[in-house]
Amino acid sequence: MKSLVILFMLFISMTVSGQAQDQDTVLIYVRKTSSEYIRAFLYSTGALNSYSIFTITDQPAEPTICGALSPNGLFDAFTQIASPTALSFAYTPTDETFATTAWNSDWDPCKLSWLDNETLIVRQIDTSNVVAMFKIENNVLREVPVSLPPTPSIPDLPFAYDTATQYIIPSNNFIKFFYESCPNEPVIPPDGVCISSTRGEVIYDLSLERNVGVITDSVPWILSGQDIDGPTHIYSIGYYSWSPDDRYFWYSTINDQGFDDFRLYDTVLERQLDTGGYNWDLDLFRKPVWSLDSRFVAFWTVGSTDSESADESIRSINVYDTVTQQVIPIDLGFQIADNKNPIIWSPNTAEFVTWDIDGNLYRVDVESVSYELIDTQVTSVIAWSYVAPIPDVELTPPVSCTITVLAADPVGLVNAIYAGNGNGASPDTICLEDSTYTLTAVGNTADGANGLPSITSDITIVGNGAVINRGAAAPAFRLLHIAANGSLTLENVTVSGGNASGAAPADDGGAIYNRGALLPTQVAATAEPVLMTDTATTPPLVLPTDTVTNPPPAVFMVKETTI
Q1: pLDDT tens, position by position, 92-151
Q2: Which own/partner pairs from 340-346 qualify as long-range (CB within 8 Å, at least 24 positions apart)?
Q3: For residue 277, what are the contacts with CB-CB under 8 A and spacing of at least 6?
Q4: Which helix H or strand E contains 412, and what residues bound it?
Q5: Radius of gyration for the chain, computed over Cα atoms and rounded to the nearest angstrom
Q6: What are the pLDDT digits (tens) for 185-211?
Q7: Rounded-to-integer distance, Cα 204 and Cα 51, Å
Q8: Which of 246, 373, 394, 400 could potentially form a cystine with 171 if both were Cys, beta carbons 3.0 to 4.6 Å apart?
């Protein structure tokens, strides 16, 4: 039997303009002058660049552009609000637009948002459903099928107190959980009271399947963001925080002097850290902010630390070091805007920035316990991030479907291929829905039994996550056959369950038999059928070896496809 087992890859080339040092960072913030808002970029080298966002007038017109910044502030996606024609992507430190794509009339121009630093989602008008997704991956920007991560859910926790679900606080990766436990109560009474003498708060580790901490001094109403003393002191947030690495859990308690105090529990050492005692109140309206390496945590206190009476209009910053287990007081007290938490940590140094109600931007060095004023008239800080290279590519254009096949309609798929074959030399794109197309009968016998019509023209099948398979009770047949004059591109589709049998070449290519050739830039050969999903003993993908050195015009390409 003549065969070559292959693993398909998609190779995308691009150019990158601008070279960024690995350790070069940029602080991105906005300041307001008398006539305009300016986005400023302060680099670790000391260079400062700024670009006008929009001009301020006495009676400013309605906004004309909607957009969204990536969390690290380096990428901006934007479009016109009225009659948009294109979605544009810009690299913010240089204000360069590096890609555009045609606008879809179903998209909402003001509901663009970044799922992470590389993934933009677009929502539909009226429904707000996510209908498009764009991803920057390996410095290539392209449209990808919508595939949202699952919403994390709280698992069944041992002895969890059912009526206190608002107190279940998951860690960042949903592996550790702080919650109220009632271990010796078989049934929660109708009044919702846990009468067990062993009731208390615990930290449970799913990976270890046991408690890694017991908390005895937390304040439940502060954790949940409510004050049980009455409506005059309702907290706007639940005052707690997990460190980025999920090791430390921060929460509030009350000391013997009646002041709000903080505690840190180390879930690795399974003990409280030494946090000492204080004579001032925590600012419970602003959560503590961790450094990215989880060593330092900055938190706000009410009033000046050296004053016997707290001034409610003043906020001071302190930093706790989890290594030395000491509080580092920062001699910086000022007024800050309500309901804001202006602390942004550096990605690679023990520094953070913060700004006051007057727009003074300060850079604080924790190691030297010092700070400096670096700018004024600042309205917000967007991010402090590593500098990224600038993608310089054209966005993959949206798919234009020649034929759309309804979900789970194998007859419709067969008819679509017949229609494409009959269209002469014109290329055809067949779009499937995210469903399973199960074939139950032999469609033709070119080089053996095949489930679908042989590809005899230029056809692209865009699966959108679809599966094309052979029914469990169906006779033996491979799924796809490409004739010598055919050209096939498969994109985002799984082809599985084929069964090629009989005398050669009928037993070749359980999933796909290709009479054509493969372009060297689109294929890499491998000795193992690592993607085989057919039920035959032969490889799922077969290309006759005599056509490799003397290739006919047929072409076969695979993009994001499982075979």
Answers
A1: 998 888 888 889 999 999 999 999 999 999 999 989 999 999 988 777 788 888 888 888
A2: 340/286, 341/286, 341/287, 341/289, 342/380, 342/381, 343/289, 343/298, 343/317, 344/27, 344/289, 344/381, 344/383, 344/384, 345/289, 345/290, 345/291, 345/292, 345/296, 345/298, 345/384, 346/25, 346/384
A3: 255, 261
A4: helix 410-421
A5: 31
A6: 554 555 555 665 566 789 999 999 999
A7: 48
A8: 246
- Tell me the C-alpha distance between 400 and 398, whole Å: 6
Single-letter code of the amino acid located at 404: T
Both tokens of 128, joined, read 């707000």
Enter the pTM of the model: 0.67
Do residues 383 and 28 lie in contact, with contact meaning Cβ atoms separated by under 8 Å?
yes
How many other C-beta atoms can be found within 10 angstroms of the C-beta atom of residue 509? 30
Which residues are bridge partners to 27 per DSSP? 42, 384
**CB-based burial label for 71 (10 Å; 0-12, 13-18, 19+):** middle
Judged by phi (left if over 0) then psi (alpha if -120 to 50, else beta), residue 415 lies in alpha
DSSP code, position 59: S
Distance separating alpha carbons of residues 196 and 165, to the nearest angstrom: 18
Look at strands 487-496 and 458-470 and give their pairing: parallel
Quickly list DSSP for 140-195. EEEEE---PPPPP-PPP-TTB-GGGGGG-EE-TTSSEEEEEE-TT-SS--TT----
Let me know: does 288 contact 241? Beta carbons within 8 Å: yes
